[in-house]
Amino acid sequence: MSESAPAAERLRLLIVDDQPLIRRALAMTLGVESDIEVVGQAVDGIDAIEQALALVPDVIVMDLQMPRASGVVATREITAKLPSVGVVVLTTFDQDDLVFEAIRAGARAYLLKDAVEEEVLDTIRAVHRGESRLSPSIARKVMEQFRRFGALPAQVRAEEVPTPSPASAPPAAPVRASASSLEEPLTDKEERILQLISEGKSNKQIGATVFLAEGTVKNYVSRIMEKLHARSRTELAVRAVGRRG
To answer: Is the dihedral of CA 148, 149, 150, 153 positive or negative?
Structure first.
């Protein structure tokens, strides 16, 4: 359990899951942390959107497969209206399409429900600090996907480049060329840090590897995001694998 934190500094958490037992178990487990306050529990995507807009939590733990509206739909709606809110996907599903859809919707982290309690807590706090996380199994799936196809899939890039007309050449080549032409070259140090991000390393771990202060690493990450036009650290990890494809 973490040290006691003033009420004003406590992380305000909204839990979203359609299964009552899981929802309550998460609330009990996470709510006992002295630096976390569970401010609400939502039963589906629509309820999640309504509660998020009403409560404006710091972080949302979001299931994906739910009635009325999915976690992807809820995440997209919430992050569009409340960009400061960090969404942590916590689900039993690890299909590639769901991973990419959740990332594109604005999720900053993606964990499976077999994650240990400490990993969930660490991820929630990291997202609150502005970081993003992928569980190791999800990170491996992302890398395998891009090694097979050698580029970001359509659903990851769809919002970033214009769709060619039917008379145009097949879309795959223009998508890669357009993204590449818009990206600024990375320095050797930035390339190394990007590689470590794709391996799921935290800023602290990256700093220890490349002998930089954690704050300096954070500045590097921000600059890399600007150069690659990425909206989140998770998207940087996706792009890193795509660049190696």
So the answer is: negative
Question: How many whole angstroms separate alpha carbon 165 and alpha carbon 171?
Answer: 9
Side-chain-facing half-sphere of 212: CA atoms under 13 Å: 18
CATH architecture for the domain at 7-134? 3-Layer(aba) Sandwich (3.40)
Domain ranges of the chain: 7-134, 166-244
Q: What is the architecture, at CATH level 2, of domain 166-244?
A: Orthogonal Bundle (1.10)
pTM of the entire predicted model: 0.60
Q: Is 46 exposed, middle or buried (0-12, 13-18, 19+ CB in 10 A)?
A: middle
Q: What is the pLDDT of residues 152-189, one digit of tens each?
A: 443 333 333 333 334 433 433 333 333 444 456 888 88
Question: What is the spatial distance between Cα 237 and Cα 196, in angstroms, rounded to a whole number?
Answer: 9
Please give the structure tokens belonging to residue 187: 């320095």
Taking alpha carbons only, the member of 137, 89, 64, 100 closest to residue 242 is 100
